[in-house]
Specification:
- It contains 7 helices and 18 strands.
- 43% of the residues are buried.
- The longest helix has 23 residues.
- It has a 5-stranded antiparallel sheet, covered by helices on one side. Strands 9-8-10-16-11 form a 5-stranded antiparallel sheet. It has a two-stranded antiparallel ribbon with strand order 5-6.
- Strand 14 and strand 15 form a beta hairpin.
- It is globular and about 70 Å long.
- With 355 residues, it is an alpha+beta fold.
Length: 355
């Protein structure tokens, strides 16, 4: 299986399965002499780890990270950084009933058909467990970027229920289990997800990431555009089915006048009156905020019986037991932030290399 690495100059490779002994990643391209400790990584992993609220999977994983290489006396050496996260609460027996069944909407079928086998215990590499490695890599990417880059994510929709832009408050994001910037919507989401959990179903979600402090010039035309790499990074996250930059799909309904981000000179500096482009023009950062959104499908592992087939090609039904997120999009917020950090760190290093 190829395709386990992401990035160019700042590049990481993840390894491990959901129910294996451990997962981890190797990060290559980190400059030397950057201060880095396990605590610097752990604070971000703690935001993503499971079992923290009733609205996420009840699998209890500490996600404690171990630095195996690439750091000496709390400084990066410039050599590959190896990180290990041990699995401590896998319950593989929960999957015995579906080892010969394909879950509709899941990667079970395609993995099996492509490779001739599949790890049915928690889905192996297709599990959201893999995203812990991305968050660990993203923590190091943030160290490469430095404090000037401000990367913040928020959950803006669960199922049909959206936040109100009029009530948007970034301070609320860290005060509720949904990363929600709208305090009133939190109550609505709680009731909605409680109902879904009891009925054995799940819900999709939409996440928005906003990045401030991005300098002009990151990104390379034609095929290494910054927004193209952002889209690839976010689409590579398990369960993501759609990505948009700036006004995204809505721009299809705009006129040229409506879409134009008009430019002015304010105090001797170039400014824009709007940001429909999401901070990227021609694949190159414009200096405005980078704004992106991505859609996460509902969790495929649900207890409601669904029609499917067996690995032997017989028609049947499947109902998934075990511990699963009623809305996997909730924990996708720190994962999305991490992937954006990795893309920006990669392009920052590439930008410096040509100056």
């Amino acid at each position: 299986m190829s395709g386990n690495s992401f990035g160019h100059l700042f590049r990481f490779t993840t390894f491990g399965e959901s129910h294996g002994p451990a997962i981890g990643c190797v990060i290559d391209g980190t400059p030397p002499n950057i201060t880095l400790t396990e605590e610097d990584i752990q604070i971000w992993l703690d935001r993503r780890k499971p079992g923290q609220t009733r609205f996420t999977t009840q699998r209890k994983e500490a996600d404690k990270v171990e630095i195996l290489s690439g750091v000496f006396e709390n400084k990066t050496t410039g050599t590959p950084i190896s990180l290990l996260i041990r699995n401590t609460d896998a319950r593989s027996k929960d999957y015995d009933d579906i080892k010969d069944l394909y879950r509709p909407g899941h990667a079970d079928y395609t993995y099996h058909k492509k490779y001739g086998n599949r790890d049915y215990r928690g889905s192996g590499r297709a599990s959201a467990r893999e995203t812990a490695c991305r968050v660990a890599a993203g923590a190091i990417a943030r160290k490469v970027l430095g404090p000037i880059f401000d990367i913040r994510g928020a959950l803006i929709q669960i199922g049909p229920h959206k936040v109100s832009r009029d009530r948007w408050d970034w301070e609320q994001v860290s005060k509720n289990p949904f990363w929600c910037p709208d305090q009133e919507t939190v109550v609505q989401w709680e009731s909605y997800l409680d109902g879904l959990r009891k009925s054995g179903s799940s819900a999709g979600a939409m996440i928005e990431i906003v990045v401030r402090g991005v300098p002009i010039g990151l990104g390379n035309p034609v095929y290494d555009k910054l927004d193209a790499d952002i889209a690839k990074g976010l689409m590579s996250i398990n369960a993501v089915k759609g990505v948009e930059i700036g006004s995204g799909m809505e721009t299809a309904s705009f006129t040229g006048e409506e879409n134009a981000d008009e430019m002015r000179i304010t105090n001797g500096k170039t400014t824009f009156t709007t940001n429909h482009a999401g901070g990227i023009l021609g694949g190159i950062s414009s200096g405005q905020e980078i704004i992106t959104r991505f859609a996460v499908k509902p969790t495929s592992s649900i207890t409601t019986p669904r029609k499917t087939i067996t690995t032997a090609g017989k028609e049947t039904e499947v109902s998934t037991k075990g511990r699963h997120d009623p809305c996997v999009g909730i924990r996708a917020v720190p994962v999305g932030e991490a992937m954006i950090a990795c893309v920006l760190a990669d392009h920052l290093l590439r930008h410096k290399a040509i100056l």
